[in-house]
Amino acid sequence: MNRLILAVAALGLVLGSVSLSQGGPILIGAPFELTGDQAAFGTIELDAVRFANELRPTVLGRSVEIVAVDTASSASESSNVTQRLIDQGVVALVGWCCSRGAIPAAEVAQAAGVVSISVTSTNPQTTLVGEGDPRGSFSFRVDFIDPQQGGAGADFVFNTLGGRRVLVVRQIGDAYSFGLTEFFTNRFIQLGGEVNIQDVNEGQTDFSAQVAALQAFNPDVVYSSAFPPQSGPFIRQARDGGYTGPFAGGDAILSQQTVDLAGADAILTAEGTANVFATSPVGAADVGSPEAQAFLQAWQARFGDNPDPFETLGFDAYNVVIQAIENIGPAFNERSLAEQRVAIRDALLATENFPGASGSITFVDTDGTPRNRVLGVFRMDLDAEGKLVSGGLGTLVATAGG
Questions:
Q1: Of all helices (H) and strands (E), which one includes residue 109?
Q2: CA-based, 20 to 30 A from 223: which of 103, 215, 277, 294?
Q3: Structural domains present in the chain
Q4: Which residues in 137-169 are b (16+ Cβ under 10 Å) and which e?
Q5: Which residues pair with 377 in a beta bridge?
């Protein structure tokens, strides 16, 4: 408990003091993927938003209430629940692990003039939905984007893993998977590599056709932009089909769910070293700033383990919005709901060098994607119990950006 108090005190110095006075709660909508194939990420990001709210529950003398809803990992449901949250009077929206739901929800929020800030939607379109709107864009994120992630992944596969022929597993109907595949493939071909794309469906369990294509193509590396419910079983079946080479993928595969569905023996080589790699945001432990260390200490005291990058970014997404409200000042409380929503957008656009747990966040002169986000490449090393080491991250083997 003492460690938690110290950590919260340290965060208070960074995030600013909070005054207490009368006033109704400020509502922050939190639409996350709590069920469906993206739930492994949405649930932990919501946990992080709620934890951030525990540490900073008030702003400008008013309590902040998180209104959480489930998008069911569905584009249509994400749009529907976003509209319901807007109708309930939220001043801003913080949510979405994934582009499938974030992009259509951002369109709904843009039409209503409400800020949407995605935790880990990496498709560029997420923050471009307001292009051409004379009011300006209301869409933000705190993560990197897939041109950076796909390019870094291709560089790693080509230069570090030595891959020249890559089979790519792409998930049909998913904006993240299609976007990441495009950026990875374009860069890999530019480097001189050859790509074979195999499509899979959400909910698919039999990958015999794709494994047969793998065997015929004989790749050096298999790269997956699909989510754990598809990537995990595919890894298992590819191993059973005789493939012994490395797997790589985007941040969607960096999950214990991938490991559990594939089996630890499919992740590890015969020597016990992981042969699966993923690009991902770096964790707070790798950021090393005072703010990151304060968050790390508070999280460890509260949960007894290390936060992973998705949780770190969820924490930052909440705090950057609350700090924007703080920066508006007492006049925020005198404004109408519509005016408050615009003021939050304007304050975010003026945000420069916000000291987040994931690193510095700047929205000045951007399209809503922060500048200089650091990306890591992680080897999915496991402990003796088959769990990803370093708080679910694996081992950092390379970085890009910053």
A1: helix 99-112
A2: 103
A3: 2-145+287-372 (3.40.50.2300), 146-283+376-401 (3.40.50.2300)
A4: bbbbbbbbbbbbbbbbbbbbbbeebebeebbbb
A5: 279, 398
Q: Which tops the pLDDT comparison, 366 or 5?
A: 366
How many angstroms separate the CA atoms of 348 and 34, rounded? 27
DSSP 238-305: HHHTT--S-EEE-GGG-SHHHHHHH-HHHHB-TTS-B-EEEEEEPPHHHH-SHHHHHHHHHHHHHHSS
Helices (H) and strands (E) in the chain, counts: 15, 15
Residue 170 and residue 200 in contact, taking contact as beta carbons nearer than 8 Å: yes
pTM: 0.89
pLDDT (tens digit, 9 = 90+) per residue, 304-325?
A: 988 989 999 999 999 999 999 9
The pair of three-digit structure tokens given for residue 215, joined into one six-digit string: 């065997």
Name the DSSP letter for residue 193: -
CA distance 381 to 383: 7
Cα 166 to Cα 185: distance, rounded to the nearest angstrom: 9
Query: Which tokens in the block code for residue 264?
Result: 């630890």
Q: Taking the CA of residue 396 as centre, how many other CA atoms within 13 Å lie in the half-sphere pointing to its CB? A: 18
